Amino acid sequence: MSYDVWIIITGALVGISCGMVGCFLILRKMAMLADAISHTVLLGIVGAFLVSHSLSGVSMLVGALIVGLLTAYFVQLLDQSGVQTDAAIGIVFTSLFALGVILISLFADQVHIDVDHALMGEIAFVPWDTIMLFGFMIPKAVLLLSVVFILNLFLILLFYKELKLCSFDAQMALALGIPVMVIHYLLMGMVSLSTVASFDAVGAILVVAMLIAPGATAYLLTDKLNRMLIISGGVGLMSAIGGYYIAYLLNVSIAGSMAMTAGILFTVTFIFSPTHGIVAKYLNQHKLKNHLEG
């Protein structure tokens, strides 16, 4: 495949995988927890390197998964202790991210881990870091993202009813005997895996955009979860493709352009959504006003 195609595939895998997982965060009103986890996984990556002295995909995934779950646990702990959720997220997010930055400065300043790269990534380099598989040269990032996408899809299909019920009515799920906290941490693990799989290639900014914008866009277009998941994946795919070509035309950051495209798609939907859009609400109010006056 060509250089351009591998970049688009990478962005598409990030958009689809993060978009699907992000739907559940939107429904749970936990969108900003995605921002926290996407930054705190830096600590997991650094910790994994200090323990294993390797930046291999497996060690990074394990480290990020552990820190992602710890982030969710600390936020939940502070929330249950009376701290407001947004404040709890802010405290945990800044503390763990800062600890990761400090550890990089102290022990890994000569290694290919830096804050700027963590935030913005460099998707343009993805096609050059390859591995031989079944006689084909495949970028490592694409292989890792594919595995995480398949795993996320498998878990969503396997625990669809539990995830759906816990997202819409956690109390009813608890009354029905569903292990709500287990499902919660399962979702947090999926967020962590999706984040670290995307982290090196596209950076935290695009990860946050893809975890939130596609799901928020789909939320405005449908009231059914299964359709929301499909639409969210489609928005993530369109963001990757459109963002790449915008970046090509304007000669700007590819990851930044993909994130901007996701924001544009959300803005257009927010204005023109048939049921929840600004235009639709204005027309409905206008019709209601005419009806009352008539």
Secondary-structure blueprint:
Blueprint: H1 3-27, H2 31-52, H3 57-80, H4 85-107, H5 115-120, E1 130-133, E2 136-139, H6 140-158, H7 160-168, H8 170-175, H9 180-219, H10 225-250, H11 254-272, H12 278-293
Antiparallel strand pairs: 1-2
Helix pairs in contact: 1-6, 1-9, 1-10, 2-3, 2-4, 2-9, 3-4, 3-9, 6-9, 9-10, 9-11, 10-11
Given as residue ranges, the uncertain stretches (5+ residues, pLDDT < 50) are none
Overall domain count: 1
The largest pleated sheet is described as: 2 strands, antiparallel
Q: Taking Cα atoms only, what radius of gyration do you get, to the nearest Å?
A: 20 Å
Helix and strand content put the structural class at: mainly alpha
Q: What is the residue-mean pLDDT, rounded to a whole number?
A: 85
Share of helical residues:
over 70%
Q: Which architecture name does CATH use? A: Orthogonal Bundle
- What is the number of helical segments per DSSP (H or I, 4+ residues)? 12
**What portion of the residues fall into strands of 2 or more residues?**
under 5%
CATH class, named Mainly Alpha
Spatial shape:
globular
Tell me the total number of β-strands: 2
Here the CATH topology equals ABC transporter involved in vitamin B12 uptake, BtuC
Order of helices and strands: HHHHHEEHHHHHHH
Strand order of the largest sheet: 1-2
**First and last CA, distance:** 64 Å
CATH superfamily: ABC transporter involved in vitamin B12 uptake, BtuC
